[in-house]
Amino acid sequence: MAFVANLRGLANNKASPTFHRMAQRAHQKVQHFKYGIPPEETGGTKLENNGPGLRKFLEYFKEEVKDQLKGKPPNKL
Whole-model pTM? Predict the structure, then answer.
């Protein structure tokens, strides 16, 4: 109970920005633990980590560009 009273006293006395950052980070860690990391915090699309899908696409794309430059008809799938 004394801890809660101490926190209330800090909040009433306009606690330092350092305290607010610490409290915000603690809250963020609890939210991440409960609900997982939200997509907007993952840092974008992460195209470099898509594995073989991106690599296969780039190989296919290069092949198609080469074929078009050589004048070959497109491959029908």
Answer: 0.39
Per residue in 6-63, pLDDT (tens digit) is 555 555 557 789 999 999 999 999 999 999 888 777 776 655 555 677 788 888 899 9
Count of other CB atoms within 10 angstroms of residue 39: 8
Whole-number Å distance between alpha carbons of 19 and 23: 6
Dihedral sign (CA 62, 66, 69, 75)? negative
Give the count of beta carbons closer than 10 Å to the beta carbon of residue 7. 13
SS3 state of residue 37: coil
Residues 6+ apart with CB under 8 A from 64: 74
